[in-house]
Amino acid sequence: MNTTAQADTLSPTVHLLDDDEAVRDSLGLLIGTVGLRVQAWSEPQAFLAQFDRDGIGAIVLDVRMPGISGLSVLDTLMEQGVDQPVIMLTGHGTVDMCRRAFKAGAAEFLEKPVNDEALLEALQNAVRQHVRSRQRHEADRAARERYAQLSEREREVLGLIVEGLTNKEIGRALGLSPRTVETHRANLFAKLQAPSLAQLIRHYAALVDAEDSSGGAA
User: Fold this and answer.
1) Cis omega before residue 113 (within 30°)?
2) Cβ contacts of residue 72 below 8 Å, gap of 6+?
3) Reported pTM
4) What CA–CA distance (Å, rounded) separates 190 from 194?
5) How large is the angle between the packed helices 152-162 and 167-174, nearest 10 degrees?
6) Are 31 and 40 in contact (CB under 8 A)?
7) What are phi and psi of 167, to 5 degrees?
8) Residue closest to 191 by CA, chosen among 155, 137, 139
9) Hey, is 60 helix, strand or coil?
10) Inter-CA distances, 71 with 16, 76, 98, Å
């Protein structure tokens, strides 16, 4: 599973959805010139049923298609929590259509005939954004898993560290000896894989605040 994820990150896929075969062929060739893989789709229903939601990449989506409009496809993607950036294309753009697309979650809105440089720049920015988003999501998930491994006492110590208390102050607050506080501190730094106090606060302060606001629920 990890190998697949790494491969997808190194070679992202652009899903190209347009009912015009000539457009799919020409845009597919263009996108391939910057090293992005392209998977072309002619039917919105098939795309929604089959495309890889776990992959890294972006979606290029024509607004006007028979059956389901591009805006309806965009709405469905957002409702399903798909995180791949969507670039909308249209040959009959209006201000209202553009506004609707951005309001629905589109990353970019371009008119046909599409300027090659504009499309490639938008795609490369979208893919970089998606890679960073997935990396942040993975880091957050790993942080939550490590935080869950802490004992109740270690969480108390962490909360006071995040508040800026010294070991001596933490000891007084919890009724612990300085040596015991130091042991808890060392253990939680090791469990959380935090190389410094700054990193500890950066990655775990939000989790501490969330637990405090929820009344201490793990």
Assistant:
1) yes
2) 44
3) 0.69
4) 7
5) 130
6) no
7) -55, -40
8) 155
9) strand
10) 15, 9, 10
Q: Please provide the DSSP assignment of 119-162 as one string.
A: HHHHHHHHHHHHHHHHHHHHHHHHHHHHHHTS-HHHHHHHHHHH
**Confidence at residue 213, expressed as pLDDT on a 0 to 100 scale:** 67
Using CA atoms, how far apart are residues 112 and 91, in angstroms rounded to an integer?
Answer: 5
**pLDDT surpasses 50 at 110:** yes
Model confidence at 6, in pLDDT bands (50, 70, 90)?
Answer: very low
Structure tokens at 49: 């049923």
Integer-rounded Cα radius of gyration of the chain: 24
> What pLDDT sits at residue 118?
95
Helix (H) or strand (E) holding 192: helix 178-192
Helix, strand, coil percentages for the chain (3-state, nearest 5): 60, 10, 30
Phi, psi of 122, deg, nearest 5:
-65, -40
Q: Which residues pair with 16 in a beta bridge?
A: 40, 60
Contacts of 14 (CB under 8 A, 6+ apart): 31, 36, 37, 38, 39, 57, 58, 59, 60, 123, 127
Nearest C-alpha neighbor of 10 from the set 2, 22, 18: 2
Among 95, 93, 119, residue whose Cα is nearest residue 107: 119
* Phi, psi (rounded to 5 degrees) for 169: -70, -35
